[in-house]
User: Fold Gfo/Idh/MocA-like oxidoreductase N-terminal domain-containing protein from Cyclobacterium lianum.
Amino acid sequence: MLDIGIIGMSPGNAHPYSWSAIINGRFDPKRIGAAGYPAVGDYLQANKDTLGIPGARISHVWTQKREVSEDIARHSGIDHVVDSLPAMIGKVDAVILARDDPEKHVEMAKPFLNEGIPIFVDKPLAFSNADLQYFKDQVHAGKFLMSCSSMRYAHECRTLKTEMKSMGTLQLVTAVGKKDWKKYGVHLLEALFSSLDDPDPLWVQHVGEENKDIVVLGFPQGIQATIHLFRDISSTFQMSFFGSEGWRMAEIKNSYSMFRENLIEFVRSVEAGKPRLEFKKTVSIIRALLGAQESFENGGKRISLK
Assistant:
């Protein structure tokens, strides 16, 4: 049985609650509703017969506030609440860093990477070239690090991939979502890249404005993609693929399914002793994320990613 620690909490991000419940197979719908995440309680309730991941459990939890940690522990059946990150070292086999504010990721991951403890870092892994370089150096040194958006494992995208050949020569992909580029651009990038079998983009350009992000990417074979993230539109994550012989659209709705698949992949990776997701794929996505931000900050300049 793998003992996994879960660390961190950021505003609006229910992952410490939901991911702990998915792994441990336990949740309290009233408690998660009171914590401000009733929709999470709804999808856990709808999928309660598939909760739990064999061979693993969340055994330890730490967040910035003891009372929040205790609430998560009661919600998901976690045995140990700790008062510091180092208190987990020697007690857990792996760690999930479950907050999505990337400026905190190096600081929080470092104690575990230093000790060689496998860690999964929530998206986006980094939002600066310096932080990305730190993580690249850790992987180069042989440390176990896995990071991605769960949209990599979305069933809607997997289904679309099976239909790709019927579209003929792919020309254009459009992706649309709600919220901001910093935290949510990586979702659509991950869904886009994984659906295309992770090609290396040639360039990226931000042609939108603040709170109305429009990002264009160029890929080999002439494929172009546009990603639209608007803060004030109705909530959605969707992609449309256009080829010479047909087109397909996928709206990604099943959060539970993609979270579960992502967590299973992390557990399987820890059991295997190395990440099943190649880190270079994560680096390519984060470079595109950072390149689009650089373009925005430089008046829409096209940024080479070669």
Notes: DSSP finds ten helices and 13 strands in the chain. The CA atoms of residues 206 and 299 lie 8 Å apart. The longest strand covers residues 170-178. The chain has a mean pLDDT of 97.
